[in-house]
Request: fold
Amino acid sequence: MIASDERRSRRIGAAFLRRSEGSIPFTANERRLLNLVRSEGPLTRPDLARRTDLALQSVVRLVDGLIERGFLTTGEKVNRGVGQPSVPISLAATSAFTVGASVTSDAMSVVMMDLSGRVVASQHESVNGSDLVIVREQMGRTLATLVASAGIERSRVFGAGVATTGYFVDRGRLNTPATMGDWALRDLEAELSQVLDMPVWIENDGNAAAVGESLFGVGRRHRSFAYLYIAAGLGGGLILDGVPVRGFRGNAGEFTGLLPVQARETRPTLTLLLQLLQADGLALSGIDELVSRFDIAWPAVATWLDRTQEALNAVVSAIAAVLDPEAIVIGGRIPSSLASRLAQRAAFYAAPLRERERPFPEVVRAEAPGDAAALGAASIPLQEYFFG
Reply:
């Protein structure tokens, strides 16, 4: 069996053959230059040489090659005093696009992102996420719709990240909850790659959302944070010094594991909130409808906040003690008003010494626009292919 990385390289190489040199499209130095231009650009060739250990001659050769292949572009010459005018180099943002999908048991969010990380199209829809065949077919149709709405060539979409719930048992295989049993223990990267005709990266939703938040939300001011992903269950992800920490098997951030099994029924999840709301007589078909109709004044919301308080405190206290991040971010599918309320109520286990307590992380609600897991999933192929 071909390893997943090799499968991706072959598909990527075929899709971008005319702009690539063989099956591995970019050298390590080309990726360094692309990343610098993405994060700090526009930059001139001398700027790039100063920011790397590369000779100016090498930078010129590499940049000219990337311009010829269509991934970098030049701007107007700029006079900077004595010497030749400088030519700023920028990313050719529309040279390549990536797709990110976040799939739950009852909904799917899909975004399309250009090379610069700008979202150019998105769609959220109800779907029977428990049926992998239905999701595969719908994902293909949604991709075609987004390509058409963005007015781009399908060949410029080079990869997709797909985030869903569960924990990894090995590369690309998730052990998903009972509600998504059809996804469990399958080679999802291979199956979805074949349907979408592009390389696919599978990630759990907590890790993907943490990446999305690091790029588009709280991560713009906090380089280290823990992300509590609240949806049907409770998961999460970690960003330390701006870098996602996935752990040995990809399961770092599974914060439900901080609680004893008997306490997990009262952890803050939308499944528990849905049950309380339905018991109050509110007719809700599922979590997607709960989120779309949410009202912070529903009486069952106060019950949910009280019932989940102890588990919430245990989780944030453990995160603070073990990781000591700058912030703990509350996000996921949880409505922003409810996330704010949770953040306000979160309390750490205190044990002052000499009347002083150790500093605790700030607890805040997520700020990334839209579905953070879809945003993070879309950014994963960009990192793996262009900027890693």
Notes: Confidence is low (pLDDT under 50) at residues 6-24. The chain has three domains: 17-94, 96-210+373-387, 220-367.
